[in-house]
Every structure is written in C-alpha cells, then in structure tokens.
Structure to design on (285 residues):
C-alpha cells in the first residue's frame, strides 16, 4: 500500500454518484471547492480519534471506529443547531493498518455520512506508531441562528436528550447517534446548547461558565440500562444534547428536564444541594 494507491482507493470509496449541494470540486485537487449559499453561517469543528485513547483494536472494528470518528464532529454540528454538510478526513496510519482496515474505516464513515447527506471532500494520509484519525466537519445554519453555550439565563430550565451513561456502561464500545434533527428543532427555542461529550458534570460546568451562571440538578437523571450515577455524571462520550429553554417554553419530546439555571458563581453545579466537581472524560488524564 502506497500513497498513490491509497488515495485512489479513498477517492473511489468517498465520491458519491451525485455531489452534495455546494460542492464544486471534491477529492482530487489541492483544495476542495465549496460554494456557500446566501444568508448562511458556516460551522467548522475538528475531532481526533486516537488508538488506545478513544478506541482499541481489541474491542472495536474498523467500521465502528470510522463511524465514531465522524459521529464526534456531527454531534458538535448538532449542538449548534446546524446542518452537517461536508467532512475532511485525515489518517495517520499505524504499521498494522492494511488496505482492508482502511476500507472498513471508510465504510464506517460512509454509513453515517449517508444518513445525514454529508460528503467527504478531502483529507490527508501519513504514518505514525498508533492510528490517529482527524475529522473536520463543516456545517451551516441560517445566518444568526446558531445555538451557542453562552445564552443561558437564571430561571431557564436544563434539559438533556437520551439516556446518560450509555457509553460508559457499555465500555465505550457503542456507536453514538448524533442528534442533528433535534439540534435543528432547538433553533430559535433553546437559549443555550452543547453536546455531552465529556459527561454531564463537566459539560454543564462549561456551559455555565460561558453563560456566567450557576446550575442546579434537581431531578432524576435519565440513565441508560446498567449505567450508574457515576456513569451518568462523569462517564462521557454519550453525544447527547444538553440545552436550556426559557421557563414555560414547551420542550421537544426527546428532552428530559434535569434542573434549573440559577444565579451564582459562574460554572458552579450542584446535585441535590451538593457541589459537583467538574470532572469527566479527559483524553489527557
């Protein structure tokens, strides 16, 4: 396997029969060319997936790993209320990576990309000691409509989507489902939003810091089967949405109320009146 043959294979695996809207030129040139639509804001996010940090070969297939690598970026777009549109995928391949494994990675990328009309439009390849994947996802929202972390106000109600602690309870072996449809539903309704990648305790602390508020968790947490409270609060990698809505505003049915935004030291989070430390999933720990 050399660079020329691998790029040719990647181009074959990644190029759809019909280009996504806005793609003037995808894989094959020095840069992809995208023609943006009028009256939209573009969203850019990037995430690593690194062997023995975010996955292990012993427990996850190439398809699983490709899916997860793209899902992380799509979840960021969901948190902003955006439409995911394009992805750039860069691979630093370990010595054990073979053609078939890279093909499996792209099967995982493409399975998830196809569900959300996302086109892979470029990337890079190199080598390293352990497999490293960097995925850049580009999305869009109507101009001025992106959801952000910094809009929560005292009195707002805190909600989460889905069941918490799912990934930790499964040993981080599941395929996350980005909440893109729900994120779009929250445009113009939520006062703040972010995705739950590092655990509720850590991510709610981050949202509260950005909004200059404190937060109280006062209700039962929606937990996944076999998930402990520790998993739900600190496990991370659930890729659900955490958001706030003004009091009295009807929440989409996918959301569960878990608390309130209050005045107080920015970033302080309490559960049943006790302070929660901002800890959770930490790739540097």
């Amino acid at each position: 396997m050399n660079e020329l043959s691998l790029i040719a294979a990647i181009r074959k695996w990644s190029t759809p029969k019909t280009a996504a809207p806005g793609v003037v030129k995808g894989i094959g040139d020095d840069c992809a060319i995208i023609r943006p639509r009028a009256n939209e804001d573009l969203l850019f996010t990037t995430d690593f997936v690194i062997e023995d940090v975010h996955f292990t070969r012993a427990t996850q297939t190439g398809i699983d790993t490709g899916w997860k690598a793209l899902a992380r970026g799509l979840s960021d777009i969901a948190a902003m209320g955006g439409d995911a549109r394009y992805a750039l995928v860069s691979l630093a391949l370990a010595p054990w990576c073979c053609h078939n494994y890279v093909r499996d990675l792209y099967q995982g990328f493409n399975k998830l990309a196809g569900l959300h009309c996302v086109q892979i439009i470029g990337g890079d390849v190199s080598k390293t000691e352990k497999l490293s994947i960097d995925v850049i996802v580009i999305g869009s929202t109507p101009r001025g409509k992106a959801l952000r972390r910094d809009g929560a106000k005292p009195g707002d109600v805190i909600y989460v989507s889905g069941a918490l602690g799912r990934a930790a309870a499964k040993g981080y072996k599941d395929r996350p489902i980005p909440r893109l449809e729900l994120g779009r539903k929250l445009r113009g309704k939520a006062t703040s939003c972010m995705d739950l990648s590092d655990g509720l305790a850590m991510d709610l602390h981050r949202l509260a810091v950005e909004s200059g508020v404190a937060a109280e968790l006062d209700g039962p947490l929606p937990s996944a089967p076999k998930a402990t409270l520790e998993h739900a609060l600190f496990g991370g990698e659930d890729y659900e949405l955490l958001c706030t809505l003004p009091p009295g505003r009807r929440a989409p049915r996918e959301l569960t109320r878990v608390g309130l935004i209050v005045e107080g030291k920015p970033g302080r989070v309490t559960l049943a009146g006790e302070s929660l430390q901002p800890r959770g999933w930490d790739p540097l720990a």
